[in-house]
Amino acid sequence: MFGKRWAREWYFHAMLLPAVALVLIYCYGPMAGMAIAFEKYVPAKGMIDSKWVGLDNFDFVLSLPDTYRVLYNTVFIAFMKMVCGLIAPLATALLLNELRKIAFKRVFQTLIYLPHFLSWIILGGILLDILSPSSGLVNQVLKSFGIEPVFFLGDNRWFPFVLVATDVWKEFGFGTIVYLAALTGINPALYEAAEIDGAGRWKQTLNVTLPGIVPIIILLSTLSLGQILNAGFDQVFNLYNSQVYESGDIIDTLVYRLGLEQYQYGVATAVGLFKSVVSFLFISLSYALAYRYANYRIF
Fold first, then answer.
1. How far apart are CA 217 and CA 220, in angstroms?
2. Staple 142 to which of 18, 62, 147, 263, CB 3.0 to 4.6 Å?
3. What is the value of pTM for the model shown?
4. Residues 245-262: pLDDT tens digits?
């Protein structure tokens, strides 16, 4: 029985081998490097011969004056991105769902989806020009209204909100598609029944549309908990500078500076391991909540 099934399906398993090999090499293989978090790692000696220091690297990280500020910045920026990243695509999907001209709907949907394909290296250069305090388009508009120029990328009061706003602008088109796909699953007969009962478009949205997509809203909300410590390294690294370390420095940029600029490999690995453990706990919690409230299962 098993032999016949294997003879019939072996090529399907063979198709998975390249993907499995990549996961083993690039995802599971580097996990052996976690040992560096407990060592005074010297590249010339390697992991085996480097001095074992136990939890000293973690104690050193906790003693740094910037550690708790960096942790706060990470959680604050990530949480704001999560909330705005759920509201913006949902509102956009509801508005697009009301459009009756299919051509206009598709054009607008394509335009808001395009930024998703641009890297933060490209967008970083664009934003540096647009938000420039001297010649940027945004500040030129502010000047025309008699408002003093704002150094958006150099002011600690503005920088976190610039990160959130630009991240939402880049990614909300992708989230909109998810909600639009969920909207197609709502039975049109419900709208007809609501219209017969005298419900207008607003009442139909409140009583038919939103309840119809509540499962996907709950699912995306709970799954986003796993990103609570991922404030977006690519974005922050391309936009921040020493003037906004106070409000824009996050765990990933701290690891970058400790490991690649200051060569404190053990300390950087300890910070990264801490982040990974916390993220794992939140991901486990998010999947448990998704299973309970949205009946979502991985397998």
1. 5
2. 147
3. 0.83
4. 888 888 888 888 888 888
